[in-house]
Amino acid sequence: MQTTNRIKIAIVPHTHWDREWYEPFQLFQIRLVEMVDSLLDLLENDQQYSFFLLDGQLAMIDDYLEIRPQNEDRIRNLALEKRLGIGPWYTLADEFLVSGEALIRNLQMGLERATQLLNPSGNQPDYQHIPMHIGYLPDCFGHIAQMPQLLVSAGIDKAVVWRGVPSSIKSTSFLWESPDGSKVYTEYLPNGYSNGKDLPNDTDTFCKWLDEYIKQLSETLLNPKSSVVGGVSAFITSNPTPITPILIMNGDDHAFPQVHLSKLISQVNTSQNHYEPYITSLEDYLGKKETLQNIKEQIHTGELRSAARANMLSGVASNRSDIKQISADVEKTLERIAEPLCALYIPDISQTQPFLKKAWREVVLNSAHDSICTCSVEEVANDVISRFTHAKQIATSLIDKALDKLGGNMNQQGTVVINSSWRTRSGVVELILDTDTLPPGTQALGITSTGPTLSAEVAEFNVDINTLQNIMGQLKKRNFTQDAWINRIILTQNPDQYIITVQIEPVLRGNLDLEKVKEKVLNDLKKSPEKQIKVLLKRSAVMKVLALVNDVPGFGWKMFHHQELTDVVKTEVSEDKNVRLCNNHISVEISSTDGTFTLSNTGDTSAISVKGMGRIQNSGDVGDTYHSVPPLHDTVVETPIDVKLVIEEAGPVRGVVCVYRTYDWPQYIDDSTNTRVATTRVEVQSRISLISGEQVVRIKTGLTNTSKDHKTRVVFPLLSPTDHSLSESAFTILKRPITAEGGPSEAPSAVFPTRWFIKAGGLVILTQGLLEYELVNLDYDGNAQELALTLFRATGMLSRISTPLRPLPAGPPIKMEHTQMLGHHEFEYGVCFDEDIYKHTDRITTNNKAREAKNRGGYNPYPYAIAEDTFLPLLTKETTGDGTLPEQGRSLKVDGAIVSALRRTDNGLLELRAFNPTAKQTELTVENANGYCHGWKVDLQSNKLESFEGHVKMKPWSIVTLHLEQL
Predict the structure, then answer these.
(1) In this predicted structure, what is the pLDDT of residue 446?
(2) C-alpha dihedral over 289, 291, 294, 299, to 10 degrees?
(3) Closest alpha carbon to 227 in 218, 236, 240
């Protein structure tokens, strides 16, 4: 006899599919095809096997259909029957190692591809055509604070997570809230997404397994919460109230479906009275009333980065940091340059949209956690680099096309400076000028081995028309040689001869149509075939210079004109051979003894100074790609054996000092003694730069690594001790403690991920692709006195069986050489004082006047402005003056929030996304030359939410997406 309150066991069959990891993609794809082949047969032949979840990512479906395109209808039919769960992501990304835009495009790409698969006719989709609307995030190494807001904007109000849930959450169901107040009902997976892998195939063993599982997790799983020490039968007898279904995830990494599952469930349901197992989907499970009970008191706001219940694998942020830097560069090039320039200057989306989509697909494929985390074999790392290379090539080519369009439309000849950011900015640009005299306000740069000037030259020779035809026939491109370009061809004549003047310069200028010019010249020559032909190859005197350009409008342009410098960079050498760089804002004094520098403010009565900055620290690392672990007997090297300072540029626009520091680093760790042994000599070169008008110290550190098993960091003493940091994360700034919560599967960790900047102790550390930092050197009060930014880790294992930080392996124990990071590497970062230390004065500005908006009562984007100016360059283009655009202008004016994206939609609308990373309400304004723009506020699926006319109110920490109809 069955009781009415049997414990319901909701079983979700699934597989977790890493596209690439401890084997390359191609090998996993073969296994994927085998798995899906068997799955389709199973679902079609066993109606009781009612559901299977394909890991919430569409990439695995596309990977399968690449080999089995004939099975698309089978997948579609099963998905429409709600027996195959697809979506909403394209890949399961690591949320901390990719940009916020990359996460949005990933989600949009997944939803779009799923809808396309379910509704190939393109008719108005109904519920049947909607992919799984669950934020399924089963194996991400922690979760960003703004994920609930992203999910809600995509029409998703539920999430499923494993890692990162803190000990403060006492049940499997809780409300997860973003800083803006967006909430999603969230289900935590105790024991992960494989808590029900390899279920027993007989009734008795299965029920005993359930007994043990429920006893183990009774305090968090059962509702009402009560002990089951007396046994499940006693619990059911004493609790007539229906019990919340217990979720069992029947799957694992690269798992095939268990074919006996439906038969097992049928046998269990007819043979005992304690359990009622059934196959279900996550949507059905989370939609049941009983699973939504008693969660109001369980609310978590912000990121999920606790290791209280599952390991966080924090070391993935710093392994293969060369790839992390490539990723950051490609995201910046695609998001911040290519898309906005194409959107504004190439209105025909057929020329750009297909290529941008292709580039984004490469980036999103690389976003997968085991790909971007680079906790993978070397073949995978090479594939990741290849995809990023392809995306960068596409973005760079589209940028060139957009600049050609803009340059060809200018009404003046010369050099136009282009700003792809939304903010009015100033900055330095490198120019090739037609002069042999240094213009005022510029700085000469090397152009030849003998000096900055390339002198004028003229070569001439006589040819007949047949020889000239042969020469022109071979002239297919404008690059005359590797570093010389044909910018002009002029035909003149006198009574006796034709003179063809070919202007050759070391920079490509104008929009010369070479084929048309060649055709016209040859046709003109044929009019008087008796005349002689003289060819003049003329090279003008040119000079390469560095120049400061002020106030280039956001999303706009400005013709370059010489101007006097009001803030000159000076270089001084002291008696003790220290080198000092200074401008009107800060000074940087570099020590000839240890190569560190002292950062001070200048021109202010309240002197601020910090010594010992930029210390290179090398320590042992016997960990793996998932964790950094010091050896039992470590040797920490911080003091160089030799230091040399070389002034590379002395100003006035930019000062550069190259610091050469030589160290003796231990060569490797001896496994038998867990000790760093042997010695290898390493020279670390750091180019320290200071630019006119800036308060940022830019640093580019390079070295040829010949050492294994170590971690190399750069250390910055703080202006004041601190117990927290403020770190930039996707669409927000997070306050973090010195140490994150640990648990049985991972010790507490003090390393955290970042993206563009960290604020701590009066400093701002700026990064591009250096994603790991730690507050270190604690005083007696537990406050940190220094911040360490990881440059790279060199380890030789994919995963160790166990480490002092993690008792269990995170992957297979594969020895790997590529993660030792041998060879030459370079790292870019910067440092400046935090604006909070200048509250007593209005002096501090960025070179682009970051405080200008704040001073007039508007929005202050600091320190986003500082980071953007450090890593996002102003662009230049040579113009012919044949167009109509004035010497200065902008296509769009945006104020009041940080712009995350500007691009064209598939139907040609201009899409703008912005976010407010502050605790105060702001007002976003959008206008062009015709006045305020109007349009619609939309969600991430482009559904219209509300109209706007020029202004949009933005609550604290919010993200908005706008479609503009007036541009």
Answers:
(1) 78
(2) -120
(3) 218
In the predicted model, is pLDDT for residue 379 greater than 90? yes
Identity (one letter) of the amino acid at 750? A
- Provide the H-helix boundaries in 663-752: none
- Cα–Cα distance between 180 and 959 in angstroms, integer? 9
What is the distance between the alpha carbons of residues 6 and 210, in angstroms, rounded to a whole number?
Answer: 13
Is residue 19 within 8 A of residue 364, CB to CB? The reply is no
Residue 373 CA to residue 19 CA, distance in Å, equals 13
Helix or strand or coil: residue 109? Answer: helix
pLDDT in tens, 452-472: 666 667 778 888 888 888 878
pLDDT tier at 222 (50, 70, 90 boundaries)? very low
Calpha distance 617→200 (Å, rounded): 52
51-93 pLDDT tens trace: 999 999 999 999 999 999 999 999 999 999 999 999 999 999 9
Question: Do residues 868 and 421 touch, judged by C-beta distance below 8 A?
Answer: yes
- Rounded to whole angstroms, how far apart are CA atoms 910 and 422? 14
> Quick check: 513 pLDDT over 90?
no
Confidence (pLDDT) at 858? 39
Report pLDDT for 291: 52
Query: What is the SS3 assignment for 802?
Result: coil
Rounded to whole angstroms, the Cα distance separating 542 from 528 reads: 36
Task: Tally Cβ neighbours within 10 Å of residue 593.
Answer: 12
Amino acid sitting at position 183? K
Measured CA to CA, the distance from residue 444 to residue 274 in angstroms comes to 84
Provide the token pair at 771: 């994603």
Other Cβ atoms within 10 Å of 712 Cβ, number = 28
Amino acid at 171: S
Are 114 and 106 contacting, i.e. CB atoms less than 8 angstroms apart? no
Angstrom distance (rounded) from CA 87 to CA 228: 37
By the 8 A CB rule, do 819 and 828 touch? no
**Measured between alpha carbons, how far is residue 245 from residues 218, 230, 252, 356, 913 in Å?**
12, 20, 21, 45, 40
All residues at 6 or more sequence positions from 780 whose CB lies less than 8 Å from its CB, including other chains: none
pLDDT value of residue 127: 65
Q: Give Dmax over CA atoms of the chain in angstroms.
A: 117
pLDDT score at 475: 77
- Which token pair is 582? 């200074």
Question: What are the pLDDT digits (tens) for 828-866?
Answer: 999 999 987 655 333 333 333 443 433 333 355 789 999
pTM above 0.85, yes or no: yes
Cis? peptide before 88, omega within 30° of 0: yes
For tokens 């020895």, the residue is 815
Instruction: Name 498's Cβ contacts closer than 8 Å, sequence gap at least 6.
Output: 491, 492, 524, 525, 528, 531, 532, 533, 534
Residue 766 makes CB contacts below 8 A (sequence gap 6+) with: 696, 756, 757, 829, 830, 831, 832, 863, 866, 867, 870, 871
pLDDT of residue 528: 83
DSSP designation for 576: T
Q: Find out whether 729 and 759 touch, Cβ atoms under 8 Å.
A: no
For the stretch 636-691, pLDDT in tens is 999 999 999 999 999 999 999 999 999 999 999 999 999 999 999 999 999 999 99
Taking residue 605's Cβ as centre, other Cβ atoms within 10 Å add up to: 6
Burial label for 462, CB within 10 Å (0-12, 13-18, 19+), is exposed
* pLDDT (average), residues 710-728: 97
Q: Give the E-state strand segments of 99-203 in sequence order.
A: 135-137, 158-161, 173-177, 183-188
DSSP letter at 182? -
What order do you get walking across the sheet with 763-767 strand by strand? Answer: 642-650, 654-665, 680-691, 697-705, 823-833, 763-767, 757-760, 724-729, 732-737
**How confident is residue 632, by pLDDT bands cut at 50, 70 and 90?**
very high
What is the 8-class DSSP label of residue 367? H
